[in-house]
Request: fold
Amino acid sequence: MKSKIVLLCIASLVLQEVCAQNLEPIDIPITPKYGEEDTNKMINEFTQTGSCSLYDFCISYSDADDTKLIYYSLLMADKYNCSEAYFNTYAMIMRMSKDYNYTLSEELWHFVFSYLKKAGDLEHTGALFALVSLYKKGNEYVKPEYERAESYLKKLNKVMHRNWKLENFGK
Reply:
């Protein structure tokens, strides 16, 4: 009996080794990326229907860069009041500013900041995080305001079902 168990274990190990050598790794992307044709189809559909979820899907999984998609973010925000589009407009312009080493003018800052606040008003969690952080730390255009930071944190806690404290926020 003991020899049969040992033989079975050896056979199992040999079989595992043979199978492992015959398997080739499969390149499966974690998230799909859609090319130009599929992206254009999605853009056509969400601009016609106002589908914020399709817009978000397209922005998240498209190969298109921010310089192409910024126009659709503006459209979805202004025409369909899409919270994701308000936030993405802010985030894209801030990212492009950083990527191209461009300092935003005061007018452009106030424009993108108004989109960030609108996204926060619509309870977009990314916007609420950004607003809490911005009002906690401040920047060249926004002075730190503890009360505003607290009010946005209260809204964020409600949306996220959390109980974060401002003094611990961002650590």
Notes: Helices lie at 2-22, 36-49, 52-61, 66-80, 83-99, 106-121, 125-137, 146-160. The chain has a mean pLDDT of 85. The radius of gyration is 25 Å.
